[in-house]
From TrEMBL:
Protein name: ABC transporter substrate-binding protein
GO terms, molecular function: peptide transmembrane transporter activity
Entry-linked PANTHER family: D,D-DIPEPTIDE-BINDING PERIPLASMIC PROTEIN DDPA-RELATED (PTHR30290:SF38), PERIPLASMIC BINDING COMPONENT OF ABC TRANSPORTER (PTHR30290)
GO BP field: peptide transport
Source organism per UniProt: Marinobacterium nitratireducens
Keywords noted in UniProt: Signal
Amino acid sequence: MLLGTFAGSALADARPDLTVAVAKNPVRLDPMAENSNVNARVMKNVLETLIYTDSQNDGALKPGLAESWQRLDGRTLALKLRAGVQCHNGEPFDAEDVAYSLGPKRFLGEQAPGWGIGSQYFGELEQVEVVDSHTVHIRFKEDDPLLELRFANWMSEMVCKDAFEAAGSWENWLKHPVGTGPYRLAEVKYGDYIKLEAFDGYWGGTPPAKSVTFKEVPETSARIAGLKTGEYQIATELTPDQFSLLQDDPDTAIAGGPVQSIRVVIYDESHPQLKDPKIRQALSYAIDRQLIADALYDGRASVPNGLQMKAFGDLYIEDHRSIGYDPDKARQLLKEAGYKGEEISYRYLQDYYTGEVSTAEILADMWRQVGINVKLELKENWAQIEDAPEGRGIFNWSNNAEYPDPLGQIYRLYGPDGWFQRNHTYQSEAFNNWGEQLKSSDKAKRVEAARQILDIYERLDPPGTYLHTLPMFYGVRTSLEWIPSDTPYMDLSSRMLRFKG
């Protein structure tokens, strides 16, 4: 673990300013308003979780805003809050803030503004009881095998009650959330940059940077050029074919690798040409995933065994048999479905995901080779991808394992509370029924449920298909030492960042 400490406030002005060149920034800054990789990258430096997941220690759970926790029963978690934690507005952080963060003004209940996104993470949450100023009991409606994990990962970030109420409205709050993290929001200029400033009242140690600016630089070449000149200290979303430009320069280096996420493409079954599952199956069989991983990532990304992560431990289905690459099978399915070459749109963005444009072009060519007529449509933003009354066709996504369990990945995303069913791109009663079994405390039932939903996802009624593990590569100035996490979060606290000299 890297430590960046400073003698005191007298040295604050001597700390460097850090500029991170990114392809895209979030628009709505509370996680419960925008569930995206780019939001996690920025806002987890501002908002913190009750329990800390240590990515440098195999995801071990450690004290965060809570100094300790214990299960009172299968559905109730008691947490003792850390003393002396301060919000960015100067107010103390206590149990009332926890209750407010998860309560009806922000999350709990279908009328709450954060319910639509947050429910896929906390849909069974029943109540938060304030026991005293530093103790809370969080209770779910049913026994939950993942109680601790739910408060150690994305979407469980705590906010400060007084600041939320002072904002006056949800829309005002989204422009300037207030939390307890090492940095606080200083300035936001949408489409240009988000600037954070060091919060020297941070309980976890003095932040190493005086400020952090996430600067939107859509073109990869411009991010690399700015990194080489020193205008930027970190550049995101690089691909291996660009590494030599930085590795040959003594002032720059490469960092990062695959994170706990899988790149996928989504099939919208409401699209006229994708209603028949055989056509969706054909799309999946036509993809040579290993070729994409090798061509674009030079061995630094792998093809998973279905939509699952080895980090799932006992819930990882080792003997699952993925469909693989079978273009003849794809052609056969298209024939059985009566497909006549009707056009299917494929919507994508300008490298929101690493190598997204190149991946789209390769996929379109693979599909054409088996007779699928795909129209590539490059869009400017997510709204243009999601706004499609006649069906979105094919579009890109990533499936993060927000906690190491199928409930934190495949069922969270494709189940009844996930984005796809809520937005009517996918419906499956069988998938939902097996997914409910995943919530059981019986290990054998959970393993069988995981096996069944993998088969539904991949073979029987696919809502999309996986491609490869999602890599996140960064260019970094050698004047700093920074350890990337295994998530989209860029931890720029003293835990992970130190400036040399």
